Amino acid sequence: MPKAKGKSRRHKYSYNLDRKRLYRSARRRAAPRIACSHIRHAWDPHKSVAQNLAEMGLAEDPNKAVPIPRKLLGMEAEGEAEQPGKKLVRKPYVVNEMELEASLPEKKGNTLSRDLIDYVRYMIQNHGENYKEMARDEKNYYQDTPKQIKRKINVYKNFYPEEYKNFIASLKPEKMEVQ
């Protein structure tokens, strides 16, 4: 089977091409990437980054926004210079929306698989807290050791504490009826 023509041919290096200039011009043309949607909607592409951030009430340089006191630097502050007048914030809604979004509770993104939950419930239901017996159970397909099974049960307890309490509470009446 013949080879593809373009793959085996050696590429020649072009000595006349200025790659640095190409890279710089490509970076200059690229607009700043803005992660926050609130800032993206309020951004004015005709203004500089400093002007845009000042209008929104955000700091361009965190070191200038929250200066380090001279006492911490080891210098004595004889005459504290008063800060010049604050800049005019024309778009305060950006900061307000960002604060509102930050105050919302975080979503719990990580969960356990349904198989692991069923496995742990089966083991607890049939063996209680006897981990050695759980390790010898026929449903222990992955041949987990007693410590591994205990770790999985503890993970289940930490992820679903209310569900675990209800499950244990539902098991106790069954055991009392058997006795």
TrEMBL record:
Keywords: Nucleus. One of its GO terms (cellular component) is nucleolus. It comes from the Eukaryota. InterPro entries: Ribosome_biogenesis_Nop16. It is found in: Nucleus, Nucleolus. The keyword Transcription does not apply. GO terms for biological process: ribosomal large subunit biogenesis. PANTHER family: HSPC111 PROTEIN-RELATED, NUCLEOLAR PROTEIN 16. Belongs to the NOP16 family. This is Nucleolar protein 16. It comes from Phainopepla nitens (Phainopepla). The lineage of its organism: Eukaryota, Metazoa, Chordata, Craniata, Vertebrata.
